[in-house]
Design a protein that fits this description.
The chain is of the alpha+beta class. The chain has helices at about 15-25, 80-85, 105-115, 120-145, 145-160, 175-185, 190-200, 215-225; strands at about 25-30, 35-40, 45-50, 55-60, 65-75, 80, 95, 100-105, 170-175, 205, 210-215. The two termini are about 20 Å apart.
Length: about 230
């Protein structure tokens, strides 16, 4: 699974000249925490490049009552490019995790720029391909892995831990249980049950909007499919 992705952010792949010309296409805008930068189903076509802060990318599940978080995006990330290119309704909602600074570029200006700059167009296509592959992996994980495995894998990813490194104190993931549930397509109750199991085995310690990794090696084994 890949909530964060492992490719260099779009803006960081541009040459200095490309970066300057792309940013000149739009205007800087500030967003407060929890604001929607993009909304699923909306017919707007602008793109957003994150300058500072982090956002979640989410979709409504088939049941319609909950949201599934598809990704976390940070500085340098390009968002909204699908609607800008195909002019169809937005496929996901982008919500600010905290205060956000971003460059907002109209869809028309972005399309014209890509038509004149094939290298940058290729970078956008590569990003789209990477995200589609990641989405396929997420769907496969939802169908084939248990909640415990998905949760273990997500905690490993979000904490950025390396099980081969000795830690004086465990890496910490700062998300509430309902937010963790939304990142793995599970109910809050199922995540709470999985966390209880991890706590009883002294693999994690939990607190208010916090999960501390106590045993990185064992958590990684669980993420890889080795059940307790």
């Amino acid at each position: 699974m890949g909530l964060l992705g492992n490719e260099l952010a779009f803006a960081h792949t541009l040459t200095p000249q490309e970066h300057e010309s792309v940013m000149a296409l739009g205007n800087r805008k500030s967003y407060p925490a929890d604001a929607h930068l993009l909304t699923e189903g909306d017919r707007s076509s602008h793109v957003v490049i994150i300058i500072q802060g982090w956002v979640t990318v989410s979709v409504v599940t088939d049941r319609g009552a909950t949201r599934l978080i598809l990704g976390l995006r940070g500085p340098g990330e390009l968002l909204g490019e699908m609607a800008a290119l195909d002019q169809h309704p937005r496929s996901a909602t982008v919500r600010a995790l905290g205060s956000i600074e971003a460059q907002v570029i109209s869809g028309d200006a972005f399309r014209r720029y890509l038509a004149l700059h094939p290298r940058v167009s290729g970078l956008v296509i590569r990003q789209l391909t990477f995200r589609l592959r990641s989405a396929d992996q997420e769907r496969s994980a939802l169908a084939s892995l248990t909640v415990l495995q998905r949760l273990a894998g997500r905690l490993v990813e979000l904490s950025g831990l390396d099980p081969s490194v000795p830690y004086a104190s465990g890496p910490v993931v700062h998300l509430a249980q309902d937010e963790l549930a939304a990142t793995i397509g599970a109910t809050r109750e199922a995540v709470a049950k999985a966390l209880r199991l991890l706590r009883t085995q002294n693999i994690v310690r939990t607190g208010n909007r916090m999960v501390e990794i106590l045993d990185p090696g064992l958590l990684t084994l669980l993420a890889d499919g080795h059940q307790e």
